Amino acid sequence: MKLTIAIFAGLLVFCAPRGYAQNTTAPAATPIAGVDDGALVLSARASKIIGSKVYKGDTSIGQIEDVLVDLNHATTTAVILSVGGFLGIGDKLVAVPVTAIKVDSEAKFTTNLTKEQLTNAPAFDFAKLK
């Protein structure tokens, strides 16, 4: 019995976690080429843009459903708007150039496009994407 207890105690000592000294200094941050802090400050997160309403004057004419980006050229290709319909029923998706959407100082998205232009525009199909 004493031998079993001694073996068990030896295993506990051998398997117990060992304390290691922690390195308290963080490694120095190395900037990644091509990331401009000034440009980042003026940027907006796509996750915050998606779901936002787009207005012509004071009238909501659509909602941002997605943002298309060209990763090879580091550009935003288009904004996909949901237009037409009511509460998501009967709406269609339309691709709009980024230059057609503006944001004011109160983070309200506006456009000069009319509701008729958007509802008469060809429907966008995500299946066209690679």
Q: Can you describe this structure?
A:
The chain is α+β, with helices and mostly antiparallel strands and about 130 residues long. The chain has a domain of about 80 residues: PRC-barrel domain (SH3 type barrels, Roll), CATH 2.30.30.240. Helix content is about 20%, strand content about 35%. It is built from four helices and six strands; from the N terminus they run H-H-H-E-E-E-E-E-E-H. Strands 4-3-2-1-6-5 form a six-stranded mixed β-sheet. A hairpin with a 2-residue loop joins strand 1 and strand 2. The longest helix has 14 residues. It is elongated. The mean pLDDT is about 80.
How would the blueprint of this fold be written?
Elements: H1 2-15, H2 37-41, H3 46-49, E1 53-56, E2 59-70, E3 75-86, E4 89-97, E5 101-103, E6 109-111, H4 115-120
Parallel strand pairs: 1-6
Antiparallel strand pairs: 1-2, 2-3, 3-4, 5-6
Number of helical regions: 4
> Strand sequence of the main sheet, in spatial order?
4-3-2-1-6-5
**Per CATH, what is the topology of the domain at 46-128?**
SH3 type barrels
Contiguous low-pLDDT stretches (5 residues minimum) are none
Query: Sheet with the most strands?
Result: 6 strands, mixed
Instruction: Name the helicity range.
Output: 10-25%
Could you say which structural class the secondary elements and strand pairing correspond to? Answer: alpha+beta
| Strand segment count | 6
Mean of pLDDT? 81
CATH architecture of the domain at 46-128: Roll
Per DSSP, what share of the residues sits in E-state strands of 2 or more residues? Answer: 25-35%
Name of the CATH homologous superfamily of the domain at 46-128:
PRC-barrel domain
Return the CATH class of the domain at 46-128.
Answer: Mainly Beta
**Helix and strand succession?**
HHHEEEEEEH
Overall spatial form: elongated
- Gyration radius (Cα, Å) is 28 Å
N-end to C-end Cα span = 70 Å
